[in-house]
Amino acid sequence: MSRSTDIILTALAPAVWGSTYLVTTEALPDGYPITLAALRALPAGLLLLAVTRCLPPRAWLGRTFLLGSFNFALFWVLLFVAAYRLPGGVAATLGSLQAMIVIFMARCWLGTPIRAWAVIAAAVGVLGVALLLVGPEARLDPIGIAAGVGGAASMAAGTVLSRKWQPPVSALSFTAWQLTAGGLILLPLALITEPPLPSLTATNVAGLVWLGLIGAAATYALWFRGVARIEPGAVAMLGMMSPVTAVTLGWVWLGQSLSLAQFLGAVIVLSSVWVGQRANQSQTRQKIRSARQHARAVV
């Protein structure tokens, strides 16, 4: 399968994640963030385990729970804290720092060279997200900012370590392990910190099914598949598709207005994603050329 196809399939994941805000606000009960996160992760993980019939070996349990924490439990909890204490635009802008953090984590943990164009594309992407989402009423809360940056760092660590630790199983099984581990971490936390859920309506159930089966099981399988095939910096840049989808759905579905600054922000984000892919692709080509030159020298 070509690299372009891998990029398109991987980009579908954050594009679908952009629907999370709409589904959460329109279809789910308010005030139960950790409980809803657990219900999003654990049933989806158990379902995938039943489908794949592949349990993690004992040697992988520690890594699985660490990745489940970074990619789901810790990430989603910090994301909810940031969302509650900051305007959505500010929280999403802090979340977009993930691409920049991944570049430096990949350098430390994977030895991936830092490319100037990749750093520039990530920085411009953050600016684009800010234009897209941050309004004049934005306020800054220290705890919210710390949670936003921490959430971006958590997902970045999960992305890089998922690339570093590749088990000999399918992306679907790898996703099942992590979703189940993340759900098992979230469940007791939800029981301790939040009251019981009220009776769920048909709309609530439909929202949970969408976030669990599509927004977690299917999309994270695509995401981890992409993590295994595409450079970490390039994968992280695709995450900026999420706020573009969120704003587009708000405009189309909720009738929200779209200002010129927001339109410009969307264009900047999409352009930075494209530049980020090109910058990381040139890095891959250089690695291939170096490997071929080394092989010729050996021969």
**Helix and strand string, N-terminal first?**
HHHHHHHHHHHHH
What would you call the quaternary organization? single chain
Q: What best-fitting shape do the alpha-carbon axes yield?
A: globular
List the uncertain runs: 288-299
Give the overall pLDDT as a whole number: 86
Cα distance spanning the termini:
30 Å
Structural class determined from secondary elements: mainly alpha
Structure annotation, total helices: 13
- Radius of gyration over all CA atoms, rounded: 19 Å
Largest sheet: none
Which band does the percent of strand residues land in? Answer: under 5%
Task: Describe the structure in your own words.
With 299 residues, the chain is an all-alpha fold. It is built from 13 helices and no strands. The two termini are 30 Å apart.
Characteristic key phrases:
disordered C terminus; mainly alpha; 299 residues; 13 helices
Give a quick precis of the structure.
The protein has 299 residues and is mainly alpha-helical. It has 13 helices and no strands.
